[in-house]
């Protein structure tokens, strides 16, 4: 399921206008107009979503597979690749797929509710992937994660997952405090997704001992 989601996201991006690879969308102003229309059609617009119109109610699903640029796509897919497989192995393929989609939908809907008057478009799998991170924190807190931190000169260092993920959560929280409803990263959706993932794993697996695979190796990116 994890690799399937990565494949779908990559395919949607490559054939869409955001990648700049499809000649049918043109170049220059034509390409920019095609990208804007693409995001408006498939992304979440909070004001439209909260109007209750049936097409808008489906956009938190479609937005999970749409990304704004190469960095957005690669950062999200790196996190999903690193943390998704182990969470999926623990939950099971079908349960993980449902968890991913539902958490992602709720994260985007939660962001929309807070920014109900916003007409900005929201796209990306960050909310769903943040839910995976939250679940991973509960399920495998002691799993060793190989991380690259810019302020440590990108040296590959291994830390327990709980240190890396709590550090990531704090960064998202600090960034969300200064973020508005305009263009940029939807840090609030990250926080909502992370909380949903952690709470789901706690409710579903509390009292059940979970052991991380001994050979697990992870890396860090930015969703």
Question: How does this model look, in words?
Answer:
It is found in: Membrane. With 223 residues, the chain is mainly alpha-helical. It has a single domain (1-143, 154-178, 185-203), classed as Rhomboid-like fold. It has ten helices and two strands. The longest helix is centred in the middle third of the chain and has 22 residues, at 70-91. Mean pLDDT is 85; it is low at 150-155 and 214-223.
Distance between the termini: 19 Å
Percent in helix: 55-70%
Provide mean pLDDT, rounded: 85
Class by SSE composition: mainly alpha
* Number of spatially distinct domains: 1
Total E-strand runs: 2
* Largest sheet: number of strands, sense, barrel closure: 2 strands, antiparallel
What is the annotated CATH architecture? Up-down Bundle
Global geometry = globular
Can you tell me the CATH superfamily? Rhomboid-like
Beta fraction of the residues?
under 5%
* Element order: H for helix, E for strand: HHHHHHHHEEHH
Query: What's the CATH class label?
Result: Mainly Alpha
Low-confidence stretches: 150-155, 214-223
Query: How many helices in DSSP terms?
Result: 10
Report the C-alpha radius of gyration, rounded.
17 Å
CATH topology: Rhomboid-like fold
Spatial strand arrangement across the major sheet: 1-2
Give short descriptive properties of this protein:
disordered C terminus; single chain; two-stranded antiparallel sheet; 2 strands; Rhomboid-like fold; mainly alpha; 223 residues
